[in-house]
Amino acid sequence: MASPQTLSETDRRVVALWAADCAERVLPLFEAEARGDDRARDGLDRARAFGRGELGPAEEIRRRFVAGRAAQSAKAPAAVAAARSAGQASGVAHMGAHALGAAAYAAKAAALVATDEDAGRRGEVRWQLDHMTPDVRAALSRLPLLGEDSSGPLGQGLLMSGMLATTIREIQAELARPRPSAAGTEGSVR
């Protein structure tokens, strides 16, 4: 039986595009430090191609670790976080929950270069939430809450503590809130 963190292939394609957009915003932090290492950029390009239906999940699942390994080329914490964001985005073809990992690492990268870390992180999270389509919101709402299921990235691991966990919990809390419908009535996403 598949993990609830996997999501359907259709949902993974939808959230792959959003995850790539999240990671793209901080990718220059990595590229400025690791000139010539195109693994993170390639991971985002592949995540977008997967999202558009141009690549199949099997090949992307085999290649999902390549972009994340680019973090080894960086020393600055923000650059490392940016590369990890790209790595998480490229892993969405395998498991949809990686989209929240991409968002969390992007928010961490933004925080690490901000004068006020918390304001930098919150600003990035606000951008991420504002750029979710209804389909992205619906797909991400199907994921278990952080720590509720151990069979994927939202289980016991790197995403369960610190700034990454705070970010994912904030995103998931926002996804659980009712949103006004086009007609002005309240509707629940979950």
Care to describe what's here?
The chain is built from nine helices and two strands, in the order H-H-H-H-H-H-H-H-H-E-E. It has 190 residues and is mostly helical. The chain has one domain (9-178). A hairpin with a 5-residue loop joins strand 1 and strand 2. Helix 1 (9-33) packs across helix 8 and helix 7 (117-130) runs parallel beside helix 9 (162-176).
Give the C-alpha Rg. 16 Å
Main sheet: strand order: 1-2
- Assembly of the depicted chains: single chain
The poorly predicted ranges are 184-190
Give the strand tally.
Answer: 2
Which key terms come to mind for this protein?
190 residues; mainly alpha; 61% helix
Give a summary of the structure in a few sentences:
With 190 residues, the chain is mostly helical. It has nine helices and two strands. The chain is globular, with a radius of gyration of 16 Å.
Secondary structure layout:
Blueprint: H1 9-33, H2 39-51, H3 57-63, H4 66-69, H5 77-90, H6 98-113, H7 117-130, H8 134-141, H9 162-176, E1 179-180, E2 186-187
Antiparallel strand pairs: 1-2
